[in-house]
Design brief:
heterodimer, A: alpha/beta, Glutaredoxin, Rossmann fold, Ubiquitin-like (UB roll), 4 domains, 5-stranded mixed sheet, B: alpha+beta
Chain lengths: 513, 161
């Protein structure tokens, strides 16, 4: 009997979408046939998505990667003795030394792709639950102060200081308080939340538990997109495991404090990523946005003080508590502290997840990490920050990735998604889509968004068909101004941003055909 | 999001099922969405005749129940085909040919979005982002996501049963 070999085949959505399940089955069958002793670990993905399915073997205590592996490659990999890190055309060397990965600062994503997502033992062996262990010794005020000092800002898009929000909830009157995690990651080009939930679910559970203990909330909800069925399954399983281990429930880690957690499945409405709309949906209603004030921190879910944070924000909390505020804030630049999770998507050669300190330029991300387009053609535009984000022109690629610098060019970092387009893109169609998307997804509460988006689609259609081009271009600008100034929330208030960026930087595409 | 487990059965059995599900969820805070999901998981859709039963159990008006169902894109009020094809229409997929894939699917299936083929095999639905944006274009069939889907690959996937 040969020695036991550990082989890692990711189980995350993207790896599976590229055939990981078939590869896993083929490895098991081939190992059986050759009487090799192989333990298959279905880990999360490292986020080097252009290499998926990327498998790894542990040889001499070091993990070596191969990818992208197809089922048909499996016999050849065995022939090349990949179980002992043998040479093969798909070999990528020691995983941690792959430059794309080695140049990152993986703090929030430290375990993502490394561990079996549902192994609590592995989570603990890799630093998990050290943050919570520290928290149970601290006062609420001390916990909130550490989060404040770390400089952490909301990673969902609005970049609001997390500690300030927590302080408001802590100080708010109320016998019942809640923690609501916004896992309605609807922005095209983003998948960081999904990765955390599928590949390291305990870090989100730990982060939410810390949030609960920090403000005295006993119930948490993860509002999770229905479009992520695998994330829903894995989160539910992980919550069950944490409950059994006494890490959730009536007596969290022996602290005498209660914190319960539940996944609530969304139902495909983009607007429910807006926090007040999400709260309405959690209450079982139409996801129509609420007026603010009152802020959710004061009067949120079921009228009670509520922390509403994005997945990445909450998943960043455990390491801040484990390692200290200084450790985290030493990454980053200016008022953008810590790390940013960039997601390279669309027409990009090397797409995936890049976690780095703030301050790198867009060009570094697109060229050094992204390697240009997948099609090999020049990049013509990059949409940053989801469907409400501006299209960024190559002349702006030297902008550093920090919240304020991006605002300075009329863009936003948002949730960190970068969607790359090559020079075949029709920017007039992209502008029309921005308005169409807003029309489909508007909650209908305010007129500028509900009616404006429909009129936007029509006006752009008239421009493209040559009906009073100059008059309609003026009208489009005017409509954009009205939506920005008059909409109640970011959907109607920002949907014009991609349109304006096309008007400003790609006027040749927004004219009669 | 998967198809019907229990689409057959008479109207009485269906009503009993709807009532049972609604009662199971009514005490949960904000239980209406989970109840509607559970109904759709069992039947494949939320039939119009479920609305009065759900309204009664939750002690809210039929209009409110209808309002919630109609607000969310992923609740459906007609029976789905045996398989549901969700085509991602978002920007990251557009950048890699989703618009052409959309045209191909509509042509091949002979139906548009929110429609089901006459033989009841496939329903076609738009979806806005599956989080598979680094391997676009993406589609989901029932609850399995596929990446880098060319028209040829889509044809092959639709051939499988």
């Amino acid at each position: 009997m040969a020695a036991e070999h550990r082989v890692f085949v990711p189980r995350d959505t993207t790896a599976r979408s590229m055939g990981a399940d078939g590869v896993a089955a083929a490895i098991a069958a081939e190992a059986d046939r050759r009487e090799e002793s192989v333990t298959l670990v279905r880990n999360g993905s490292r986020g080097l998505y252009w290499l998926e399915p990327m498998i790894e073997v542990e040889a001499g205590g070091v993990r070596h990667a191969y990818g992208p592996v197809q089922t048909s490659d499996v016999p050849a990999l065995f022939n090349a003795d990949f179980l002992a890190a043998g040479r093969h055309a798909l070999g990528l060397g020691p995983t941690e030394e792959i430059p794309w990965l080695a140049r990152q600062s993986r703090l929030t994503f430290a375990r993502v792709g490394v561990t079996d997502p549902l192994s609590l033992d592995e989570y603990r062996a890799h630093g998990g639950y050290q943050g919570l262990a520290r928290v149970v010794e601290l006062s609420r005020d001390e916990i909130v102060s550490i989060v404040t000092e770390s400089g952490l800002r909301g990673r969902g898009g609005a970049a609001f200081p997390t500690g300030v929000k927590w302080r408001t909830v802590l100080n708010a009157e109320g016998t019942q308080k809640y923690v609501a995690c916004n896992a309605d990651e609807g922005d095209s080009g983003t998948f960081a939340d999904r990765m955390v939930m599928e590949s390291d679910p305990f870090v989100l559970i730990e982060g939410m538990t810390i949030a609960g203990l920090a403000v005295g909330a006993t119930q948490g909800y993860v509002y999770l997109r229905a479009e992520y069925p695998l994330a829903i399954r894995i989160m539910n399983e992980a919550i069950g495991i944490a409950e059994t281990a006494g890490l959730l429930g009536g007596n969290v880690m022996g602290s005498g404090q209660a914190f319960n957690l539940e996944v609530r499945e969304a139902a495909g409405a983009y607007i429910c990523g807006e926090e007040t709309s999400m709260l309405e949906s959690l209450e079982g209603k139409r996801g129509v946005i609420r007026f603010r004030p009152p802020l959710p921190a004061v009067k949120g879910l079921f009228g009670a003080p509520t922390i509403v944070n994005n997945v990445i924000t909450l998943a960043s909390v455990p390491i801040i508590l484990a390692e200290g505020a200084d450790y985290y804030r030493d990454y980053g630049t200016g008022r953008s502290r810590g790390t940013l999770t960039v997601q390279l998507a669309g027409n990009v050669k090397r797409g995936g997840l890049v976690e780095i300190g703030f301050g790198r330029t867009l060009r570094e991300l697109l060229e050094d990490f992204g390697g240009g387009t997948a099609t090999g053609r020049p990049i013509r535009a990059v949409q940053a920050g989801g469907p409400l984000g501006a299209y960024i022109h190559p002349s702006q690629f030297d902008t550093p990735l920090d919240y304020e610098a991006f605002e300075g060019i009329g863009g936003m970092i948002g949730h960190g998604g970068l969607v790359v387009f090559d020079d075949t893109v029709d920017m007039g169609e992209q502008a029309r889509f921005a308005m169409e998307f807003c029309a489909i997804e508007s909650c209908g509460k305010c007129t500028p968004c509900r009616i404006g988006a429909v009129r936007g689609v029509e006006v752009i259609g008239r421009i493209l068909s040559g009906d009073d081009e100059s008059g309609n271009l003026l009208l489009l600008r005017d409509l954009c101004d009205t939506m920005i100034a008059g909409s109640l929330c970011a959907l109607g208030g920002m949907a014009p941003f991609p349109v304006i960026s096309v008007l400003d930087h790609y006027p040749e595409d927004l004219r009669a055909r | 999001m998967s198809g019907a487990k229990n689409a057959n059965g008479g109207a009485d059995a269906r009503e009993a099922l709807v009532l049972r599900i609604a009662r199971r969820h009514v005490a949960r805070p904000g239980g209406l969405l989970p109840a509607l999901h559970a109904i759709q998981d069992e039947l494949g859709y939320v039939p119009a005749e479920a609305v009065p039963s759900v309204a009664e159990v939750f002690n809210i008006s039929r209009a409110e129940v209808h309002g919630v169902i109609s607000f969310y894109h992923l609740f459906r009020t007609t029976p789905p085909g045996r398989r549901t094809l969700y085509l991602c229409r978002s920007e990251a997929c557009q950048a890699m040919g989703a618009r052409a894939l959309e045209r191909h699917a509509a042509e091949r299936l002979g139906i548009g979005f929110h429609e089901t083929t006459p033989d009841g095999r496939i329903s076609l639905e738009p979806i806005f982002c599956l989080g598979n944006c680094a391997c676009s274009p993406a589609v989901m069939i029932d609850d399995f996501v596929y990446g880098r889907v060319t028209p040829q690959r889509l044809d092959a996937l639709l051939e499988e049963d």
